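Whiteboard transcription, Tuesday session. T.W. wrote the structure tokens on the left side:
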């Protein structure tokens, strides 16, 4: 096979199932973010009228995710390689580093997962007197997250192996809990939010924008998906290389150039086969699974808390749900909800640590000869330098947040989600430019896809405008 020939796509159901990878990693990130407590917190405060926003977000992000991975299929490189053709590459690298590092450095997920496991240990939600216990668990989980990212041939493959059981277990646990413990009327009420949409006037945009930004994945997810697609070896990504782990991996030459396939009848036939893999991963694994999960968690929240007149915020949503479900199903429900919540949130923490470290590594690796020379053509050196920096900053913030009461886990997670809106607003128009400027005409998307990408810009632009007006001018739309 020469360099201009596109590798054969997966064949049959088992072939596509084996090829799935990027979407399951992003599904794990999203289930532990918006679906577990950001979105349910919004529903319990404002009601099911906002459920329609979940459907819109899942559709728009599925479109962007699929389009970004198509670029990797075509030339082997992640989508940020294309962005660098639009200006100075190193400027793009610094811009994306800031847009992604700042929202993710807040260790809200480690703190939230520590709260869950401490609640399991104590048999109640931890209070101020239990902050040392929560801090110890949070530090241990942050360290464990770091350890996970050191093991495996490919870091991407390690994340797949860890995240598959997490996602499946969480869906099963939540499904059993909501089917057994929530009345049918709650299902109907929440479902009405899709056919009778609404939007509360004068609402708190900090809560709403955070919930919507992380559904299903959030800021920079398109770059994460395309990077995982390259490391998975999709399409021409098989000819470019990947980021290996320190323990179990070996030095791999990660190319900084594109390796596009030639436009031929055979390659176009293979391209269509790869598109099926992309669609399964983006539409079904990432978006549909997270949509089903957020629907179930919203039903559970609305059905259990609203009848009791409860409207908790942040991780207290999960704890109060566990208590309410225990009243219906018995003490085992407390364990089920918090155990599922722990794995959701913990998976999000180490997933975000990898995703941001890899996207920053990719950007500087592609943009700078000096970086590649400095690292001796071993991308692990730069990747782990970024990872250790992220870990150190997160550790300081974690100690300050829990030990000195700087902020609560929900506030940190919501701050990160809202800051991530900047990256989302930029990603959609950039994808349109990439599709029509750098893809051969035979590979360009349909008009419908382009319209949806344009709508994505408007959609996230509205929420970014709302949160900025509220934050900077005190105006609530």
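and on the right, the sequence the group agreed on:
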């Amino acid at each position: 096979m020469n360099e201009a020939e596109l590798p054969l796509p997966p064949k049959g159901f088992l072939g596509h199932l084996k090829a799935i990878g990027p979407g399951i990693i992003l599904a794990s990130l999203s289930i532990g973010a918006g679906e577990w407590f950001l979105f349910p917190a919004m529903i319990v405060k404002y009601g099911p009228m906002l459920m329609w926003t979940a459907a819109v977000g899942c559709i728009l992000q599925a479109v962007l995710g699929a389009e970004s991975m198509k670029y990797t299929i075509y030339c082997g490189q992640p989508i940020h390689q294309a962005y660098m053709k639009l200006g100075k590459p190193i400027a793009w690298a610094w811009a994306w580093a800031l847009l992604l590092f700042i929202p993710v450095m807040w260790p809200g997920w480690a703190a939230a997962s520590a709260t869950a496991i401490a609640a399991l240990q104590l048999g109640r939600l931890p209070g101020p007197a239990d902050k040392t216990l929560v801090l110890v668990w949070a530090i241990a989980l942050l360290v464990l997250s770091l350890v996970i990212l050191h093991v495996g041939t490919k870091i991407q493959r390690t994340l797949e192996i860890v995240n598959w059981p997490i996602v499946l277990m969480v869906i099963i646990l939540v499904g059993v809990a909501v089917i057994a413990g929530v009345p049918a009327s709650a299902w109907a009420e929440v479902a009405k939010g899709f056919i009778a949409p609404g939007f509360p006037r004068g609402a708190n945009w900090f809560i709403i924008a955070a919930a919507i930004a992380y559904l299903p994945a959030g800021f920079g997810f398109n770059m994460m998906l395309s990077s995982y697609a390259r490391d998975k070896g999709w399409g021409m990504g098989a000819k470019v290389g990947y980021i290996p782990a320190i323990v179990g991996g070996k030095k791999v030459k990660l190319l900084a150039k594109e390796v596009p396939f030639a436009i031929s009848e055979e390659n176009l036939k293979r391209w269509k086969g790869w598109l099926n893999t992309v669609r399964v991963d983006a539409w079904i694994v990432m978006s549909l699974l997270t949509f089903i999960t957020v629907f179930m968690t919203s039903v559970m929240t609305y059905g259990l808390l609203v009848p009791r007149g409860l409207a908790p915020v942040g991780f207290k949503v999960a704890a109060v749900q566990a208590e309410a479900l225990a009243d219906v199903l018995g003490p085992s429900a407390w364990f089920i909800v918090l155990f599922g919540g722990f794995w959701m949130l913990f998976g999000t923490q180490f997933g975000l640590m990898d995703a941001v470290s890899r996207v920053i590594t990719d950007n500087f690796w592609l943009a700078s000869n000096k970086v590649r020379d400095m690292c001796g053509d071993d991308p692990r050196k730069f990747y782990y330098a970024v990872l250790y920096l992220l870990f150190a900053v997160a550790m300081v913030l974690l100690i300050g947040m829990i030990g000195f009461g700087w902020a609560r886990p929900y506030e940190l997670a919501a701050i990160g989600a809202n800051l991530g809106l900047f990256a989302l607003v930029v990603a959609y128009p950039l994808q349109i430019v990439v599709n029509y400027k750098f893809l051969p005409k035979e590979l360009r998307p349909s008009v419908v896809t382009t319209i949806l990408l344009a709508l994505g810009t408007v959609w996230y632009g509205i929420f970014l405008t709302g949160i900025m007006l509220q934050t900077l001018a005190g105006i609530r739309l």
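Someone added at the bottom: DSSP finds 20 helices and no strands in the chain.
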